[in-house]
Amino acid sequence: MEIKKTAIQDVFEIYPKIFEDARGYFLESYREDLFQKHGMNTRWVQDNQSYSQAGIVRGLHFQTGMHSQAKLVRVISGKVLDVCVDLRKGSPTFGEYHSVILDEALQNMLYVPTGFAHGFAVIKDAVFTYKCSNVYHKESEGGIIWNDKQLSIDWGVDNPLLSEKDQSWPDLKKFEELSRGGL
Protein backbone atom coordinates (compact mmCIF):
# COMPACT_ATOMS: atom_id res chain seq x y z
CA MET A 1 0.00 0.00 0.00
CA GLU A 2 1.42 3.39 -1.00
CA ILE A 3 0.38 6.36 1.15
CA LYS A 4 1.14 9.79 -0.34
CA LYS A 5 1.11 13.12 1.49
CA THR A 6 -0.69 15.96 -0.28
CA ALA A 7 -0.08 19.72 -0.21
CA ILE A 8 -2.65 19.97 2.60
CA GLN A 9 -1.47 18.66 5.96
CA ASP A 10 -3.23 15.48 7.18
CA VAL A 11 -4.85 14.70 3.78
CA PHE A 12 -3.49 11.52 2.18
CA GLU A 13 -3.95 9.70 -1.12
CA ILE A 14 -3.77 5.94 -0.70
CA TYR A 15 -2.97 3.45 -3.47
CA PRO A 16 -3.42 -0.21 -2.55
CA LYS A 17 -1.39 -2.96 -4.14
CA ILE A 18 -3.77 -4.93 -6.38
CA PHE A 19 -3.04 -8.62 -6.87
CA GLU A 20 -4.65 -9.83 -10.09
CA ASP A 21 -4.85 -13.24 -11.71
CA ALA A 22 -7.24 -15.24 -13.91
CA ARG A 23 -9.78 -15.42 -11.06
CA GLY A 24 -9.98 -11.64 -10.48
CA TYR A 25 -8.20 -9.46 -7.94
CA PHE A 26 -7.47 -8.95 -4.25
CA LEU A 27 -6.47 -5.81 -2.34
CA GLU A 28 -6.24 -4.51 1.20
CA SER A 29 -8.59 -1.52 1.47
CA TYR A 30 -7.56 -0.67 5.04
CA ARG A 31 -4.71 -1.62 7.31
CA GLU A 32 -4.61 0.03 10.72
CA ASP A 33 -0.87 -0.32 11.34
CA LEU A 34 0.05 1.39 8.04
CA PHE A 35 -2.44 4.18 8.58
CA GLN A 36 -1.19 4.79 12.12
CA LYS A 37 2.41 4.86 10.88
CA HIS A 38 1.39 7.92 8.80
CA GLY A 39 -0.47 9.63 11.67
CA MET A 40 -3.98 8.52 10.69
CA ASN A 41 -5.05 7.25 14.11
CA THR A 42 -8.72 7.10 13.28
CA ARG A 43 -11.31 4.85 14.87
CA TRP A 44 -13.92 3.99 12.22
CA VAL A 45 -17.52 3.65 13.48
CA GLN A 46 -19.71 3.79 10.35
CA ASP A 47 -19.43 2.60 6.74
CA ASN A 48 -21.58 4.18 4.03
CA GLN A 49 -22.17 3.37 0.38
CA SER A 50 -23.93 5.30 -2.36
CA TYR A 51 -24.61 4.89 -6.05
CA SER A 52 -24.60 7.92 -8.34
CA GLN A 53 -24.91 8.38 -12.07
CA ALA A 54 -22.47 10.35 -14.19
CA GLY A 55 -23.06 14.10 -14.02
CA ILE A 56 -24.05 14.22 -10.34
CA VAL A 57 -22.23 16.42 -7.83
CA ARG A 58 -22.60 15.63 -4.13
CA GLY A 59 -21.27 18.07 -1.57
CA LEU A 60 -19.55 19.94 -0.15
CA HIS A 61 -20.58 18.42 3.22
CA PHE A 62 -19.24 18.33 6.77
CA GLN A 63 -20.30 17.61 10.35
CA THR A 64 -19.57 20.11 13.14
CA GLY A 65 -18.44 19.98 16.76
CA MET A 66 -18.34 16.69 18.58
CA HIS A 67 -19.95 15.07 15.54
CA SER A 68 -17.11 15.95 13.13
CA GLN A 69 -16.11 13.13 10.83
CA ALA A 70 -12.88 11.96 9.28
CA LYS A 71 -13.54 9.92 6.14
CA LEU A 72 -11.75 7.28 4.10
CA VAL A 73 -13.34 7.38 0.65
CA ARG A 74 -13.07 5.28 -2.53
CA VAL A 75 -15.08 4.00 -5.45
CA ILE A 76 -15.85 0.30 -5.78
CA SER A 77 -16.89 0.83 -9.38
CA GLY A 78 -16.89 3.87 -11.62
CA LYS A 79 -14.90 7.09 -11.46
CA VAL A 80 -15.30 10.33 -9.50
CA LEU A 81 -13.47 13.58 -8.94
CA ASP A 82 -13.18 13.67 -5.16
CA VAL A 83 -12.68 17.02 -3.39
CA CYS A 84 -11.97 18.07 0.19
CA VAL A 85 -11.78 21.67 1.44
CA ASP A 86 -9.82 22.68 4.54
CA LEU A 87 -12.16 24.44 6.99
CA ARG A 88 -9.98 24.06 10.08
CA LYS A 89 -9.92 27.25 12.13
CA GLY A 90 -6.42 28.74 12.05
CA SER A 91 -5.11 26.29 9.45
CA PRO A 92 -2.47 27.76 7.09
CA THR A 93 -4.37 26.07 4.24
CA PHE A 94 -7.86 27.22 5.32
CA GLY A 95 -10.07 27.55 2.22
CA GLU A 96 -7.75 25.50 0.03
CA TYR A 97 -8.87 22.26 -1.54
CA HIS A 98 -7.36 19.00 -2.71
CA SER A 99 -8.86 16.94 -5.51
CA VAL A 100 -8.07 13.51 -6.89
CA ILE A 101 -9.69 11.14 -9.37
CA LEU A 102 -10.87 8.00 -7.56
CA ASP A 103 -10.98 5.21 -10.12
CA GLU A 104 -12.14 1.61 -9.95
CA ALA A 105 -9.06 0.54 -11.95
CA LEU A 106 -6.73 1.92 -9.26
CA GLN A 107 -9.00 1.34 -6.24
CA ASN A 108 -7.29 4.43 -4.80
CA MET A 109 -8.59 6.21 -1.72
CA LEU A 110 -8.52 9.60 -0.07
CA TYR A 111 -8.17 10.14 3.67
CA VAL A 112 -10.09 13.27 4.71
CA PRO A 113 -9.48 14.36 8.33
CA THR A 114 -12.00 16.12 10.55
CA GLY A 115 -12.43 19.81 9.83
CA PHE A 116 -12.91 19.40 6.08
CA ALA A 117 -15.85 19.73 3.72
CA HIS A 118 -16.07 16.84 1.28
CA GLY A 119 -17.77 16.25 -2.05
CA PHE A 120 -17.44 14.51 -5.38
CA ALA A 121 -18.45 14.76 -9.03
CA VAL A 122 -19.35 11.55 -10.82
CA ILE A 123 -17.43 11.08 -14.07
CA LYS A 124 -18.58 7.48 -14.68
CA ASP A 125 -21.55 5.89 -12.85
CA ALA A 126 -20.11 5.03 -9.45
CA VAL A 127 -20.58 2.97 -6.33
CA PHE A 128 -18.92 5.13 -3.70
CA THR A 129 -17.99 3.89 -0.24
CA TYR A 130 -16.61 5.64 2.79
CA LYS A 131 -15.66 4.94 6.34
CA CYS A 132 -16.55 7.59 8.93
CA SER A 133 -15.02 8.28 12.32
CA ASN A 134 -18.38 9.39 13.73
CA VAL A 135 -22.01 8.54 13.09
CA TYR A 136 -24.14 10.92 11.04
CA HIS A 137 -25.91 13.57 13.14
CA LYS A 138 -28.44 15.64 11.17
CA GLU A 139 -28.32 18.66 13.49
CA SER A 140 -24.53 18.91 13.04
CA GLU A 141 -24.62 18.80 9.24
CA GLY A 142 -23.27 21.71 7.23
CA GLY A 143 -21.95 22.54 3.82
CA ILE A 144 -20.34 24.95 1.41
CA ILE A 145 -21.93 25.67 -1.97
CA TRP A 146 -20.33 23.43 -4.59
CA ASN A 147 -19.67 26.24 -7.10
CA ASP A 148 -18.21 28.81 -4.68
CA LYS A 149 -16.35 31.42 -6.74
CA GLN A 150 -13.61 31.82 -4.11
CA LEU A 151 -12.80 28.09 -4.25
CA SER A 152 -13.02 27.90 -8.08
CA ILE A 153 -13.20 24.11 -8.13
CA ASP A 154 -13.26 22.67 -11.64
CA TRP A 155 -15.68 19.80 -11.13
CA GLY A 156 -15.38 18.68 -14.75
CA VAL A 157 -19.16 18.35 -15.07
CA ASP A 158 -21.36 20.59 -17.20
CA ASN A 159 -24.82 21.27 -15.72
CA PRO A 160 -24.50 18.86 -12.77
CA LEU A 161 -27.49 17.25 -11.12
CA LEU A 162 -27.61 18.44 -7.48
CA SER A 163 -29.86 17.91 -4.48
CA GLU A 164 -31.89 20.91 -3.30
CA LYS A 165 -29.80 20.97 -0.13
CA ASP A 166 -26.52 21.11 -2.08
CA GLN A 167 -27.81 24.11 -4.02
CA SER A 168 -28.55 26.08 -0.85
CA TRP A 169 -25.34 25.92 1.21
CA PRO A 170 -23.56 29.23 1.93
CA ASP A 171 -20.36 30.23 0.18
CA LEU A 172 -17.00 30.03 1.97
CA LYS A 173 -17.04 33.70 2.98
CA LYS A 174 -20.49 33.41 4.59
CA PHE A 175 -19.51 30.12 6.27
CA GLU A 176 -16.42 31.81 7.73
CA GLU A 177 -18.57 34.63 9.15
CA LEU A 178 -21.17 32.24 10.60
CA SER A 179 -18.59 29.87 12.11
CA ARG A 180 -16.29 32.64 13.38
CA GLY A 181 -13.35 31.43 11.36
CA GLY A 182 -13.83 27.73 10.69
CA LEU A 183 -14.56 24.36 12.23
Automatic annotation (TrEMBL):
Q: Does the keyword Transcription regulation apply?
A: no
Matching entries from CDD domains are given as:
cupin_RmlC
InterPro entries attached to this UniProt entry: RmlC-like, RmlC-like_jellyroll, RmlC_Cupin_sf
Q: Which reaction does it catalyse?
A: dTDP-4-dehydro-6-deoxy-alpha-D-glucose = dTDP-4-dehydro-beta-L-rhamnose
Q: How does it assemble?
A: Homodimer.
- Keyword Chloroplast annotated: no
Q: Which SUPFAM superfamilies match?
A: RmlC-like cupins
What pathway, per the record?
Answer: Carbohydrate biosynthesis; dTDP-L-rhamnose biosynthesis
The family classification in the record reads:
Belongs to the dTDP-4-dehydrorhamnose 3,5-epimerase family.
Q: Know the name of this protein?
A: dTDP-4-dehydrorhamnose 3,5-epimerase
Record keywords: Isomerase
Per its UniProt entry, what is the enzyme's top EC class, as one word? isomerase
| Annotated EC | 5.1.3.13
Q: Specify one Pfam family.
A: dTDP_sugar_isom
Top-level taxonomic group: Bacteria
Q: What does this protein do?
A: Catalyzes the epimerization of the C3' and C5'positions of dTDP-6-deoxy-D-xylo-4-hexulose, forming dTDP-6-deoxy-L-lyxo-4-hexulose.
- A GO molecular function for this record? dTDP-4-dehydrorhamnose 3,5-epimerase activity
Residues in coiled coil: none
